[in-house]
Amino acid sequence: MEREAAAGDLSAERRRRLLRRVDLTTPGLLGLPLAWLVIFFVVPIAIVAAYSFDVYSLFPGKHGFTLGAWRGFAHDPVYLRLFWKSVQMSLIVSTIIVVLAYPLAYYLALSGTKRKYILLLVLIAPFLTSYLLRVLAWKVILGDQGVVNSFLFWTGLRSPGNPISQLLYSRFAVMLVLGYIWLPFVALPIFVSLESLDRRLLEAATDLGASRLQAFRRVTLPLSTPGIVAAFLFVFIPTLGEFVTPSLVGGATGYMYGNQIVDLFGTGFPDWETGSVLAIFLLGVVTVLTVAFSRFLQPRQAAN
Amino acid sequence: MDIALSRNGARLLKAFFAFVVVFLYTPILILVVFSFNNSDVPSFPLSGFTLHWYREFITNSDLRGALETSAIIAALSSVGAVALGTVASIALARRNFKGKAPVSALLLSPLVIPYVVFGISLLLLFHTLGIPRSILTVVIGHIVISLPYTILVLLPRLQQIDVALEEAAYDLGAGRLQTFRLITLPLILPAVVSAYLIAFTTSFDEYAVASFVVGTRVTFPIYLYSALRFPNQLPQVIAVAVVVITISLLVVVAAEIGRRVAERRLGTLG
Questions:
Q1: What is the pLDDT of residues B79-116, one digit of tens each?
Q2: Of A136, A137, A154, the CB nearest to B45
Q3: How far apart are CA B36 and CA B25, in angstroms?
Q4: Of the residues A29, A58, A260, B4, which has the fewest C-beta atoms closer than 10 A?
């Protein structure tokens, strides 16, 4: 009896020790995810930054700290003009689709429709399907022999030798496709902010004599500003560095800043140093934007 | 009278909503129509019904190989991202420690990095370390990209669960690992499943980062991208597109239904 009890105690003791060993403390929990991000996210970016100052290079030769590539970037009108053009394109796309998405989110959140979550899913589902395949669809639609042009030939609205060729491979095509891709997604943060709106505030406004329009302008709109800002940044940030859509539907006029970065690391005339400068500059702009508006980008905004 | 919307306003918004839904789904429908069109070029007038393009892509071994590669990468990277995301979310939800704000900022920061910048950064890292590009290098990149998404799904769910349930388990003598396995994990399981699905689809569809670090075995998006540049493959690619879009729409709907059923069942506990 006694020996059995002792053995039981021993195994309990051992189990406790074993458990303590696999017990997950805070460093134990955070160690792996943080290490992963440091090694495969922070360090790589640091390498690019070092590359841009020529502190580090994969090519043989003499290297040392220099601002040469940065100076070249600042004085070369091509890169900055291209950056400004990309900013403009992203601004236009983001503004237009936020303006379009607001009434959609408003309808879902405030019209009292019972099927709002199903309708929200209908709206967002295209965003969850393949990105490249949605670009493909527009390539099929906009080409010289594509759906729009061939439809016009077929119905005789345009002669076959004379397609509307600006449809594809243009700045317009890039902006249309980017807008199409991001529109479902921007409705989400706006919907979240409108849905959490306390309707009693609107009742109070009406009781105090406000018209619907006044209540919207003085109550609803200001309270949904965080959603609007979040939605805007959720599109603006990824489209600013976009290179896939412009390379597929942009042609020469739709070429964006992101394409320039890819080309500088490409096989044609590689210039990794300048490419690193362009990349770090873009990252800097995005970081400043993110930090400046971080209070609008809380996780709960995107969680649902 | 409704304060948010007049009756006419509601009607107008409803019509606008319908219009946008039509705009969003028309390009997809056009792909469906032309995937059955018996012509080498997708253009009007339609020239008869065929299953030729579907048959062709099923027998296309390059395409099948690419789909397989993407499935492997997505399966590996989503398991990795969910595992890392789960431990990170538990730390963020249950522990108090110094520097919580910068730590969560770092964990979520891959959400906002331009993929072109991240792609070249990884490329330079692998060059520096002398690691040849392969399936593994893509998996590494995709785990970084998917990790914040898994945290965004798991963290709110963990915060919803009553901590008293876990404390009760400790009081009854369970270790932390045991508590996690017997109490926490079953309660967050629906969120784990949706995190996994999000990570999987993110990886399966990811082109930008993969294009920098992919090895000789191309992924499905990379195959698609190169096929998009050769018009003679277009009808086949359209047929693939229809299949992939249909499957992903079905997964989205199934995941949503599953999430609701699970949350309703767990709602009494949570």
A1: 999 999 999 999 998 888 888 889 999 999 999 899 99
A2: A154
A3: 18
A4: A58
Give which of A136, A220, A282 to mutate to test B binding, by max B Cβ within 10 Å: A136
Distance between CA atoms of B229 and A135, rounded to whole angstroms? Answer: 12
Inter-chain touch B44–A19, beta carbons under 8 Å: no
pTM as predicted: 0.88
For residue B268, the 8-state DSSP code is T
Interface of A with B in 81-100 (CB under 8 A): 100
ipTM of the complex in this document: 0.89
Superfamily grouping for domain B60-267: MetI-like (1.10.3720.10)
pLDDT, one tens digit per residue, over A93-140 is 999 999 999 999 999 988 877 788 889 988 988 888 888 888 988 988
CATH 1.10.3720.10 fits A72-303, yes or no: yes
* B100-108 vs A26-37: helix crossing angle, rounded to 10: 40
Q: List the domain boundaries for chain B.
A: 60-267
Could you tell me which of B67, B75, B74, B115 has the C-alpha nearest to residue B241? Answer: B67
Nearest CB neighbour to B44, from listed A33, A147, A203: A147
**Smallest Cα–Cα separation from B187: which of B135, B265, B110?**
B265
